[in-house]
Amino acid sequence: MSSLAVGRAGRRTTRVWPLFLVTGLAGFLTTLDNTVVTVAVPSIQRDLGASLAALEWVATGYILTFAGLMLAGGRLADVHGHRRVLVAGLAVFTVASLGAGLAGSVEVLVAARLAQGAGAALILPATLAVLAGREERQRSTGVAVWMASGAAALALGPVAGGYVSQHAHWSWVFLANVPLGAVIIVLAAVAVPAGEGGAGGGRELDGGGVVASVVFLGAGTFALIHGGAHGWASVPAVVALIVCAGGGAAFVVAERRAREPMVELGLFRVRSFAGGVAAQVLWGLGVNGVFFYTAIFLQGVLGFTPTDSGVAFVPLALLVVVVTPVVPLVGRWLGAGRTVAAGLVLVAGGMALAATLEAGDGWGRLLPAVCAIGVGSALTMPLGSAVLGAVPEPRAGVAGGIFSVSREISGLFGIAAVGVIVHASGNFATGYAAGLLVAAGLVLAGALISLVALP
User: Fold this and answer.
1) pLDDT of residue 192
2) Which PROSITE patterns does this UniProt record tie to the protein (predicted)?
C-alpha cells in the first residue's frame, strides 16, 4: 500500500516528519543568509579590498533577488511541481554558496550573492506549497516548524556570523551552506512526493505577470534598501520608487488580462488570506526594526560588546523553538485569531519594555523584553497555516510566495521606518524609543486584524 493516502477533505495524510525536516531546514538555511553575512563584512573588506558601495551589494544583493523573484518562484512551483522547483532552488543556492565561499574578488562575491537570492526565491515558496496539501493538523504543525526555523535563523544569524568571522575565515559563512544544502536536496528528493504541484490551474506561466512582479518587487526592495541607507531624496531611491509604482500598475493590468494569472487578485477578497498577510506584514514591520536597531542600541547606549549584543537575541530564538511545538494545541483551543492576537500583543508589550531601556541598564531589564517578543512571535505561527488554508491547493506556491515576500518586504520597510524616526529625533536613544513605540502600535493593529479576519 502506498504511504500516501487521501484525507476526508481531499487533503493528503502521510508520515510527514521527514517533510517537516526538509521545510524547516530549508527555511532556516535561506533565512540565515539574510543576516549572517553582516558581521563578516569587515573581514571581507580587508581580504578583497572592497569599496563601501561594493560591500553594500554583498550585504543586500541576496535580499534584492530573494524578494524580487519570490512571486515568480511560487508560480514556477505551481506550474512545474513543488519538488522539482524546490530541488532546483536548493541546487542553485548550494552552488552559489560554494561560489561565494571561493570568491577571489568582490565582483564574483556579489554575483554569487545575487544567485543565492535567486535560489532562495525558488526554495521558500515551494517549501510552503508542499505543506498546503496536508490535512489541517499536519499543515498547522508544518507551517509552525517552518516559521519557527525562520525566526530562529533571523535571531541566530548575527551570532553565527560573528563566531565564524572571529574563529575562522569569512568564507566559511558561505561554505557551511554547501554540505547542509546537499543534505536537504537528498532529503527533499526522498520526502517530497513527486506528483505535487504541476497543475497550477493550467500550464501557462503568465510571462507578463512574472516580469511585472519582478520589476515591482525588485525596484521596491532596492528603494527600501537604498533609501534607508542614503536618503529617500537620493536619485537612485526616487527612480526606484517610480519604477516600482510602474511595475505595480503593470502587474495589476497583466493579472486582469491574463487567461491564467499568476496571482488571482480575488484572493485578497478572502478575509483570512488578506488578514493573515496583513498581520504578517505588521509583525515584520515591528520585529525587524527591533533586531536591527536594538543591536546598535545595545552597543552604543548600554555598552554591550559585539558578542554580548549577539547573544542577547539567543533567548528569543530559543523561546521560539521551545514554544512552537505547543502552538498548534493552543490554536485548536483558542482558535487561530485569538492565538495570533495574543502573540502580537506580547510582541508589542516586549517592544514597549525595550523602549524604556536607558544607559546603565543590563540583562535584568533587557531579558523580559526579549522573552516577551520571543514567546509572542511563536504564538503567531498559525498565520501561515491560515493563509495556506484559505487558497486552492493549485495556487499554494503563489500563496506561499505572497506570504514569504510580505515577511521580507515588511522587514526592510520596518528597518527603514524606524530609521526615519531615529534619524529625525537627533538623539539615537530617544529616537530608538520612539521608533519602538510606533512599531508596537503597528503590531497591535495586526492583533486587531487577526481577531477580526482569522478563524
Assistant:
1) 85
2) MFS (PS50850)
Neighbours of 2 (CB within 10 A): 6
d(C-alpha 136, C-alpha 142), whole Å: 10
> What residue ranges of the chain have pLDDT lower than 50?
1-13, 200-202
HSE value, Cβ hemisphere, 13 Å, CA-based, for 174:
28
The grid coordinates listed for 143 are 507551517
Of 22, 389, 12, 405, the closest CA to residue 196 belongs to 12
d(CA 85, CA 90) in angstroms, rounded, equals 8
Cell of 85: 522547483
Count other Cβ atoms within 10 Å, centred on residue 296. 13
Q: In this structure, is the dihedral angle defined by the CA atoms of residues 287, 377, 165 and 56, taken in order, positive or negative?
A: negative
403-432, pLDDT tens digit by residue?
888 877 787 777 777 777 877 777 888 888
At residue 131, what is the residue type? L
- Give the integer Cα–Cα distance in Å for 126 and 81: 9
Cβ–Cβ contacts within 10 Å for residue 451, how many?
A: 17
Cβ atoms of 157 and 316 within 8 Å: the answer is no
Cβ atoms 173, 42 nearer than 8 A: no
Query: 260: how many CB neighbours lie within 10 A of its CB?
Result: 16
In 174-254, at which residue ranges do the beta strands (DSSP E only) sit? Answer: none
Spatial distance between the Cα atoms of 19 and 83, rounded to a whole number of angstroms: 11
Set of cell numbers at residue 409: 518586504
Q: What is the DSSP letter of 14?
A: -
> Of all helices (H) and strands (E), which one includes residue 6?
strand 5-6
